[in-house]
């Protein structure tokens, strides 16, 4: 039993995107297989765990749901750290949210500070595909954007109709696992869980640099 | 002791709102840090109050000016300041007429039809133009300087925070003995706390200045006939009209500072300019809300516009206040002769403002709504954000589903943004307004919100990268450690940080957690006890859930457990059972999900258990409030 437990892989998945594009709905659809009827703006951030078996490995994905309002980005920064993969969501019926993809990606790379900037696993998710009235963001445009930004993968989903939500998250997790293989050694259950807990502190990275100063004060 | 007494005097002189200090001090007392903390805070404040009396511009610049060596810019700045001081003195000598003390904005607005004010304005008219002339020149330098210094100041406070936070995350620290860490943490919290008390003091002043400038803006708009049209063609109506006097300063320069595209810049410029004029102009603001706005404004705002202004009439005449029919949703009893609020609302508004005049404040609110329609003041992005959020606010309660209610809330929220664009709109405020609008009329909701924001410091939660929120969470952690050590230990063991859910609790001010029925009681208590009651309710929820929390195994379970009561709230579908059904025109049928999947018997049973839960929580709450009061 213990051996099995040790094989668990913990992944931190962060979902970002504009306000009201359906981040919470997507995550809710995936983790609890229901469509959230009572919409509420996410304030601060929330997370939910989901255990899945992918390629014979048990993966515990800690999926972080962040707030979309621009103002909350300063809070969100602390959640980006230590992410293994990142999903950027946009609303296909809202073109401005598609145009904001750039800023979201850059903000993540800047504040999340992953080791490999160029190859960090992103997945672009176009949500609300069910609202088909002809004015949706076209797949070609989205693919074009992805190609221009380091050959990212793109997927179209609908949290309402449950089209390829599962698929999207599986892809995300697989990508995260690939990255994990390269970078990290598997840790025992307890340790790895500890490492995966989230630091909500402000400017943790800066504090590390300030170590010597701090000693003086004390 | 000496310092204390001096300090008190200083406070009275500088006439600052020290409510911030008192509330935070109170909570400090509870957590048992009292003596040390108080003394330190007092020392800090003493140091500041001395300096602030010299320099009104910005509190942040003061902070650093002590520790830095004078640079070129600093010298420039001090020169500018020295040019102000004699003028100010001269002015105070001139205004030998008896000054009335008007401590609060509302009472200021209420003091209608005063004669001595108009006399005052004519006497000092020429002086005024001189004053503002010199000041604008200074302010441009000072703006740049103070923006820099604020950043530096922020970094400094961050450093202080960093110390305390770093200790927690530091791996070597974790390997130390647990008790030692706790002790250290406690000390750090104390230090951090002290730094914040003074920080708030400074920050508050800046905002206060800005609020005054807002009233000016209001006055300007009240008196300009062509709303909207004029403003759109004129990129910066307020900076241009109000501060720049006819014979001064190339207008272009100021306007480049406040191009409408960049949001933060114009706010900064308006902010700084207005702060300098506080002393001189606060007198004039007295007249801004008075019965005869045309008379005073002629002399005050801009001599150029005199010809236009004479013909201008105020938006609504104050003699015939518009009385609206009652539009409340609660079943609470009503106060006699007042149709704007129920008894609860009346109590709340009384605790925020001493003399609240419903009719006049309705006028002021209407004017603000008018202003908020200007796209320069409330930009489209904000409006669309608010609209997005209103579709997601309490949508399981039928009174909030109607378009009418959404429009109402939109107006209130936009007016709030127009009232204080420096802070703007943040998600979470929508829940607070929605919770209040049940008991109050639209305009009262607005003013009640401003009261909450200013007197009870809710605005601080959202501003400045959520500084206030982090402070409150830290306070709560101290409380949690003290009153519920078991839960605290459990969280520590699992490395679970209460921030994750506390952020939501604080930023929505518990409005999205507590059911609507119980929110009434919660607000009632909050207006009585202030932030103590917030911490007490948080603690009592934890206390209520303690047995289940202690059983949890991992972080996810803990989080779900703490949010359990909230989910209870979410699953309830007919909250308005306790409230009247919305009977406004144009009300829509609630969405299909609204008619619940639960059967009615299920529903009532569920409701009963939920009410029992919340009764138990409020029982806990009372014991906590008592315990807070003891110490």
UniProtKB/TrEMBL annotation, chain A:
Keywords: GTP-binding, Lipoprotein, Nucleotide-binding, Prenylation, Protein transport, Transport. InterPro entries: P-loop_NTPase, Small_GTP-bd, Small_GTPase. GO terms for cellular component: cytosol; late endosome; lysosome; phagocytic vesicle. This is Ras-related protein Rab-7b. It comes from the Eukaryota. Belongs to the small GTPase superfamily. Rab family. One of its GO terms (molecular function) is GTP binding. GO terms for biological process: protein transport; regulation of immune system process; retrograde transport, endosome to Golgi.
From TrEMBL, chain B:
It holds the Pfam family RabGAP-TBC. GO terms for molecular function: GTPase activator activity; small GTPase binding. Residues 282-295 have a biased composition (Basic and acidic residues). SMART domains: TBC (SM00164). It comes from the Eukaryota. Residues 355-530 form the Rab-GAP TBC domain. InterPro entries: Rab-GAP-TBC_dom, Rab-GAP_TBC_sf, Rab_GAP_TBC_domain. SUPFAM superfamilies: Ypt/Rab-GAP domain of gyp1p. Residues 1-33, 57-123, 226-261, 282-310 are annotated as: Disordered. Residues 76-85, 112-123 have a biased composition (Polar residues). This is Rab-GAP TBC domain-containing protein.
